[in-house]
Design brief:
Elements lengths: L1 H10 L5 E4 L3 H11 L11 H5 L10 E3 L13 E4 L15 E3 L1 H17 L3 E9 L7 E7 L2 H10 L10 H4 L1 E6 L6 H4 L6 E5 L4 E5 L7 H13 L6 E3 L1 E5 L5 E5 L6 H5 L5 E4 L3 E4 L2 E4 L3 E5 L9 H7 L5 E3 L29 E5 L11 E2 L2 E8 L9 E4 L1 H10 L1 E4 L11 E4 L12 H15 L2 E6 L2 E2 L7 E2 L2 H12 L8 E4 L4 E4 L12 H4 L3 H22 L11
Parallel strand pairs: 1-5, 2-17, 3-4, 3-8, 6-7, 7-9, 12-20, 20-24
Antiparallel strand pairs: 5-6, 8-9, 10-14, 11-12, 11-13, 14-15, 15-19, 16-18, 17-18, 21-24, 22-23, 25-26, 27-28
Helix pairs in contact: 2-5, 11-12
Bound molecules: adenosine-5'-diphosphate (ADP), phosphoenolpyruvate and manganese (II) ion.
C-alpha cells in the first residue's frame, strides 16, 4: 500500500501492523478494546475486551487521558530549530526550541521503539481546511484509536481538488507508549511535542494523550504556513447571522469562543481555528471541541443537543455516582465533577449541529470580537474599539483566569498571549497583526472587546458575568445596535464603554459602578494597566509599529 511505503520512507517504520482508514464505527470498537476507553479509567474491563461490540456506536466514546495530561503540555511543545526557520519562528514566546541533532536522535529512538514492539498503528488521512485551494493534507499516525477517531471527527475528509497532496502532506506520529529521557533526548520531561518544518512531521513522543494535542499541533503548523500565502490564520471562532453578517471571536482558552459561537440564531463556521483570506472566512476544522464542566443545558442548548448525538468523544468526565461506564448514556455522566480535570471535553463532528455553514465557509466578517475573561473584574463588560485599539489588544492578548479549583487561590492569574494564541502562533505577532490591519481596513468591520470574566469585584468578591448578559451585549453589537451609541471613557484603561445597550441594565456597563469599594476598583484597574504596559515593553511591540493605547 502507498501509505506504508510513505511511512517507511519518512520514518523507517517496518514490521508495523497498520489499521488504515478504519471507519468511525471500527475506530470506536478498537478504542474500547485497546485504549483507555469507556468503562474503566485504567483501561478496558475484561468484559469489554470480550464483547466490545455490545456498546454500539450510539453512545459517546468516553475516554480518559493519562491523569497528568488532561490538557496541552505547553512547556513540552517545541519546533525544531532548523537554521532555515531559526529567525522565522517566534521562539521568544511559548514555542520552545528543539535542537536538530537531539530531535533526530529522539525520532530515531521512537521509531526503534515502534519497530521493536511491532506496534499497531492507526492511520487517518484528513485535511486541515475545507477550501481545496489551501487545505493542508494531514495524516495522523498513532497508537490510540481514540486519537484517530478524534481526528476523524474534527477535520475535513475526502476533499476533492486539493493539489500536490503527497508533496504538501504533514504527518503526525503520536506515540504515548514511548518515554522520553530528558538527559538523553534533550526534552524537559518524559513527553515532547515537536514540529519539524523541514520534514513536515509533528512528533508526539510520550504521554501527551489529551485529544486536543492532535488538533492544536497541526493548527500551529497552519499558523506557520498560511501567512506565507497572505492568508490570516486566527485562533477564533466564527459564525454568520441571518443577513449573511459574519463575526469572528478571538480569545484564549476559556474566554468563550466555543460557547458564544454556538448560537441557535446564527450559523456556525467553526469554534476555534479560522482562516481569513481574500475569499472570506474558512474553518480549518470540521468539528467542535467544547468544554463540559458545569454545562448548563438551558444556557448552552446547541452544545447540549450535540451531546446526545452518535459518534462523539467525551474526555475525562466521570460517571454519576452509582453508574457504571458500561451502561453510560451522556445523561449518566457527571458534568459537574471536575475531580479528574477542570478541562473536561467533548468532541463532536459538525454534522451533529444542524445549523452550520456549508463547507465551513462564510463571507468577510462584519464584526470582530476580542474576548477576554478578566478575573480582576475591571474591564468593562463591553468596549467599543477603534482599529488601533484592536491592534493593541490583539498583540497584547490579555485574559486573567483563576487557577483552577485550588483551595486558597484568590489572586487572578494574568496571561498575555500574543494574537490570543501565543502557543500556536508560530510566526512573529507582527506577521498576523499586519494581515489583520490590512483586512480590517479593507472590509470595515466593527470591533468590540467583550469581557466574559468577572463583574462586581475581582474573583473572590465579584461574580462571573452571566452568560445571558454576555449574549445580550454580543447580540446588540452584532445587530449594529451599538454603532454610534453614546459612550464614556474608562480613564485608567482608556476604553470606550457604551452608556446603554438594549436588554442590558445600564448600571453594569461601567464596571466601577458594580464595585462597592471604588478605591479598590481604581487600584486594581491601575495594577492591570501597569501589567499591560510592562507586557508591551517586554515584547517590544513598539518595534512592530503597534501604537500603545493604555
Ligand atoms: N459570560 C460568559 N461568557 C462565556 N462563557 C462563560 C460565561 N460564563 C461562564 N462561561 C463558561 O466559560 C467557559 C468558556 O469556555 P469556551 O467557550 O470553551 O472557551 P474557548 O472555546 O474560548 O476555550 C464555558 O464553560 C462557559 O460555560
Ligand atoms: C482545544 C483547545 O482550545 P480552547 O480551549 O481554546 O477551546 C485547547 O486549548 O486545548
Ligand atoms: Mn473552544
Amino acid at each position: 500500500m502507498r501509505f506504508q511505503a510513505d511511512l517507511e520512507k519518512l520514518f523507517g517504520l517496518k514490521d508495523i501492523s497498520y489499521k488504515y482508514e478504519l471507519s468511525k464505527a471500527e475506530l470506536f470498537h478498537e478504542a474500547i478494546a485497546n485504549d483507555r476507553g469507556r468503562v474503566h479509567r485504567d483501561g478496558p474491563s475484561d468484559e469489554q475486551k470480550a464483547f466490545p461490540t455490545r456498546l454500539g456506536v450510539n453512545g459517546p466514546l468516553v475516554y480518559y487521558t493519562d491523569p497528568d495530561c488532561t490538557g496541552r503540555r505547553t512547556k513540552d511543545t517545541y519546533a525544531v530549530n532548523w537554521p532555515e526557520v531559526a529567525d522565522e519562528i517566534w521562539f521568544k514566546a511559548d514555542l520552545n526550541r528543539y535542537e536538530p541533532a537531539q530531535y533526530e536522535g529522539l525520532l530515531k529512538r521512537v521509531i526503534d521503539h515502534l519497530n521493536a514492539k511491532k506496534a499497531t498503528l492507526y492511520v487517518k488521512d484528513v485535511f486541515m481546511g475545507s477550501d481545496p485551494d489551501f487545505a493542508v493534507p494531514y495524516r495522523f499516525v498513532g497508537e490510540y484509536a481514540t486519537h484517530a477517531m478524534f481526528v476523524h471527527n474534527m477535520f475535513p475528509k475526502n476533499l476533492a481538488g486539493v493539489k500536490d497532496v503527497d508533496a504538501r502532506r504533514w504527518t503526525m506520529l503520536n506515540v504515548p507508549s514511548f518515554v522520553c529521557e530528558p538527559a538523553r533526548d534533550g526534552s524537559r520531561s518524559e513527553a515532547a511535542v515537536i514540529i519539524d518544518t523541514r520534514n513536515k512531521i509533528c512528533l508526539v513522543a510520550g504521554r501527551a494523550d489529551y485529544c486536543g494535542v492532535n488538533k492544536k499541533t497541526i493548527f500551529t503548523v497552519g499558523n506557520y504556513l498560511m501567512p506565507k500565502e497572505g492568508r490570516l490564520s486566527m485562533h477564533c471562532s466564527a459564525n454568520v447571522g441571518k443577513n449573511n453578517d459574519a463575526a469572528i471571536l478571538f480569545g484564549l482558552s476559556g474566554t468563550g469562543k466555543t460557547t458564544l459561537s454556538a448560537d441557535a440564531s446564527r450559523r456556525l463556521i467553526g469554534d476555534d481555528e479560522t482562516i481569513w483570506s481574500d475569499n472570506g472566512l474558512c474553518n480549518l476544522e470540521d468539528g467542535c471541541y467544547a468544554k463540559l464542566i458545569d454545562l448548563d443545558k438551558n444556557a448552552e442548548p446547541v452544545i447540549a443537543d450535540a451531546l446526545s448525538k452518535a459518534g462523539t468523544i467525551i474526555e475525562n468526565v466521570p460517571p454519576l455516582p452509582g453508574k457504571k461506564m458500561e451502561e453510560c448514556h451522556p445523561d449518566e455522566l457527571d458534568l459537574f465533577d471536575g475531580s479528574i480535570a477542570e478541562n473536561t471535553r467533548f468532541s463532536y463532528p459538525l454534522e451533529a449541529n444542524p445549523n452550520v455553514m456549508p463547507n465551513g465557509q462564510g463571507p468577510h466578517p462584519r464584526t470582530i470580537v476580542l474576548l477576554t475573561a478578566d478575573a480582576f473584574g475591571v474591564l468593562p463588560p463591553i468596549s467599543i474599539l477603534e482599529p488601533k485599539d484592536v491592534m493593541y489588544h490583539f498583540v497584547s492578548g490579555f485574559t486573567a483566569r483563576v487557577a483552577g479549583t485550588e483551595v486558597g487561590v484568590s489572586e487572578p492569574q494574568p496571561t498575555f498571549s500574543a494574537c490570543f494564541g501565543g502557543p500556536f502562533m508560530a510566526q512573529k505577532p507582527n506577521v498576523y497583526a499586519r494581515l489583520l490591519a490590512e483586512k480590517m481596513e479593507k472590509h470595515h468591520a466593527r470591533c468590540i472587546l467583550l469581557n466574559t470574566g468577572w463583574s462586581g469585584g475581582a474573583y473572590g468578591t465579584g461574580k462571573r458575568m452571566k452568560l445571558s448578559v454576555t449574549r445580550a451585549l454580543l447580540n446588540a453589537a452584532l445587530n449594529g445596535e451599538l454603532d454610534g451609541v453614546e459612550t464614556e471613557t474608562q480613564p485608567i484603561l482608556n476604553l470606550k464603554m457604551p452608556k446603554s445597550c438594549p436588554g442590558v441594565d445600564s448600571a453594569i456597563l461601567n464596571p466601577r459602578n458594580t464595585w462597592s469599594d471604588k478605591d479598590a476598583y481604581d487600584a486594581t484597574a491601575t495594577k492591570l494597566r501597569d501589567m499591560f504596559r510592562d507586557n508591551f515593553k517586554k515584547k517590544g511591540f513598539a518595534d512592530y509599529g503597534i501604537e500603545e493605547r493604555i
